[in-house]
Design goal:
This protein is of the alpha+beta class. 29% of the residues lie in helices and 28% in strands. The protein contains four helices and five strands. One of its GO terms (biological process) is tetrahydrobiopterin biosynthetic process.
């Protein structure tokens, strides 16, 4: 049997969590917030059933046949996503969002940062957050260049 060259694969797993939030920026006046965020600026907030798909990538291990053990990925996602976010008021219960507007973009960044602390280095490929069936954010850890 001849040795095979390493094969790369992507592995994805999804979870769903429920949370409420209010889109509101402390940098804007109440009038500016209402104009920018509309009904999503309701002082009482509103909720979503978020679906999150986490994708990792790496070499397929020749012994296990896996990029990563799904049981491990499930546990990391539980710790990084479900525990801090599920059935929470994002703005009041999650310290990160006390200073950051709880948009879906920022939820994706929060999840990415949490997963980066847990997963083996370099394996996280993307975080996809579905706020609704129509609204989806994909984050791959990119940052803009500070000028």
């Amino acid at each position: 049997m001849s040795p095979r060259s390493a094969r790369l694969a992507r592995l994805s797993r999804s979870v769903t969590f429920s949370a409420c939030h209010r889109l509101h920026s402390k940098s804007l006046s109440d009038e500016e917030n209402l104009k920018l965020f509309g009904k999503c600026n309701n002082p009482n907030g509103h909720g979503h059933n978020y679906k999150v798909i986490v994708t990792v990538r790496g070499e397929i291990d020749p012994v296990s046949g896996m990029v990563m053990n799904l049981t491990d990925l499930k546990e990391y996602m539980q710790e990084a996503i479900m525990e801090p976010l599920d059935h929470k008021n994002l703005d009041k219960d999650v310290p990160y969002f006390s200073e950051v507007v709880s948009t879906t973009e920022n939820v994706a960044v929060f999840i990415w940062d949490n997963l980066q602390k847990l997963l083996p280095q370099g394996i996280l490929y993307k975080v996809e957050v579905h706020e609704t069936e129509q609204n989806v954010v994909v984050y791959k850890g990119e940052q803009t260049i500070v000028k």
